[in-house]
Each structure stands twice: as structure tokens, then as C-alpha cells.
Design goal:
Elements: H1 6-11, H2 32-60, H3 62-87, H4 92-142, H5 149-165, H6 167-172, H7 181-210, H8 218-256, H9 262-272, H10 278-295, H11 297-327, H12 331-369, H13 378-408
Amino acid sequence: MEEQTPEARHRGIVPEEPTSDPVANAAVELPLGVRVAAAWSWRLILIGIAVAALIWLITKVAIIVIPVIIAMLISALLYPIVYLFERKGLPRALGVLTAMVTFLVAVSGLIWLIVSQLRAGFGDVARKAAQTWQDILSWIESAPFGLSADQVNSFMEQLMKTVNDHQGQIWSGALSVTTTAGQVVAGALLTLFSLIFLLIDGKRIWYWVLGFLPKRAHAATDSAGRNGWVAVGSYVRVQVLVAFMDAVGIGLGAVILGVPLPIPIAILVFLGSFIPFLGAISTGAVAVFIALVYNGPLNALIMLGVVILVNQIEGHVLQPLVMGNAVKVHPLGVVLAVSTGALLGGIPGALFAVPLTAAASAMVDTFVERKWDPEATPVADYHKKNQVHREARTRARITARLQRGGESA
């Protein structure tokens, strides 16, 4: 720093203080943690907006999305039958026909059993339920609760009115379940057609969708998609086993305790068990109700114990060991997925939550571990193979035509 002369000091001249260079980028003045948090924040906000937009779009086309997802789950269940026919050298169409007939016979058999059994016993259940309700009202009036039968009836009427007023939200949630006969028929037909075409041309549909992505992403996405599909297939097949064991456990308990309609109860438990953890308890409540109506409170209490025991075996043995090994999803992840799916999508959301989570987990693992050949070109290879097959079939038809012409000559 320059020293001031006496003359400069006398005149009051003070030299200018040196100034620092202005900051070119204010972001560098922020702590690293703040910058990292900000970078994560806006990206997470964009992801949240994208997910919300996707859910909103799905709600608008739920009548299409739900049947297609159901068809995908069923095709994952039936595909081993088609693959078995292909491996034996038999026509793929024969395998698809066998798989469809097997599925339709199984579904028709379950529906026939439920309808025939309920038709025979529903009237008696209704009468018994009415009689049990009157017995409960009489017991309440005689008990020192200070309640009358009219007050209880009024409360139940108000409760039923509230349920009726909000049944749309109760049954559908965010994803509306089909409610009219026309929507049910349309959804069933769309599921059936989607299932047939997925079994026949599932691979071609996949590579058609894959073709919309950039070429450099084909190998990674194809590998991730295949692993996700394997996870979905494993989930569906294992869930069928879990549902069957739940149905056998609760149905056998109903038979031993002398609860009427054990076959419809077992079928309802089987169907409800496709919603993990919650399904078996919800449908098992039907068995407890019938036991209460027919056999009294003690029998119903024992039946409730059977339902809870079966559910505990599912939750602590089947789901962690069998399901966890099949789909590589932690039981806590299954519970959270089902709860979130039910919150966002009602019954369909709870039903589809676990297979979608299993597929997403398998795909993310593939991306993280880079389980693909970066030099592979799956879409181009598929189209090239199809071209070779078409040319071979064309040559075979021409050869056969020439042979027939030579024989006729």
C-alpha cells in the first residue's frame, strides 16, 4: 500500500481502497448442501408432477387400463402352457387355444360353484341373519346399556344411508370400477381380446412398443422389460398358490366347525387372496358372519381365530418366504404397495399394486446392475428373424405349389 505524502494528507486526498472482483455466479457462494438439496428438490417436484399426471390420465381411461392390466396378469399366468407347446414343436395356436380353454373352464367352474351353492343357501342365510339381528336387539334392550331397539335401528339406518351415499368412493377409489352392465360386458370383452392377442403376438407387440424408443436404449429396455415380465409371472403363479392355501385353510376350518356353505366361502377367500394381506381377512369375515348366524357367538369366535391364524401363516410364512423369494420384494414393501394402491386406486389399485411393484423392482435392478449386452440390437434382430421366417414360408409355399402343378401334369 502506497504511503501518503504530507502534502496529500494536508489536501485531504485519500487513495481509493482496492475493491474485490464481483462474483460471476452467485450459486458458487451457496453451501454445497443447499445446492444439492435444491437440485434434488426440483427434480423430485418434476417427477411428482409427472406421476400425478399419469395417475390422472389413467383415471380418465380406467375402463381400458384395468382390463388390459388384468389381461397382462392372466397372460403371465397362462404363458407357460403356450411355451410348453412351442418347446414340444407343436403349433403356437394350439397352445393358445389350450390355455384359453383351461382358463375359461376354471373360471366358469368357480362361478358355477358359487352361484349354485349360494342359490341353494342364500334364502336360509337371510332368514337366519334377520333372526340373529332380532336376538341381538333383544339382548341390547335387556342389557344395562341404556339403549333401545329403536335407537339401534336408527343408528344402523343412518350408517347404511352413509354407506349408500359414499359407495362410489368406497368401491372405486380414484380408479372407477365398472358399475353398469354395459361397462362390465365391455371390460370383459376387452380383457378377453387383449389376453388372446397377448398370448399370440405378445413378443411382436413388445418390440413394436420398444421401437418408439431411441435405438441406443433398446438393449437396456428390452433386458429390463424381460426381467420385469418374469417377475410378474412369478408373482401371479405364486399368488395362485398362496390364495389356494388360504382357501383350503379357511374352508377346512369352516367344514370342521360345521359352518354352512364352506365351498362358496373357500372360493371367495381364494379370489380375495389376490389382494395380499387384506383379501383373506376381508373374505374370511364372511365365514365368521355365517358362523355367527348359524352356530352362535362361540362358534363365530373360533372361526375368527381360524381366519386370523391362516392370515398370520400367510403374512409370516407364505408371503416372506414364498412370495419374497419369487418377486424379491420385502414384505414391508408389499404392505406399503397394497396400502398406497388402495388409497390411490381403490380395489383395482390394491390388486395391481404388488405385481407392478415387483416389475418395477426387477427393472430397476436391471438398470442399476447393467444386466444387458450394450452391443445387442434386439429390435433389429427380431425384425430380421421375422423377415427370414417370412421368406422361408414363401419359398415353402412356392415349392409346394410347383410340386402340386408337376403332379397334376
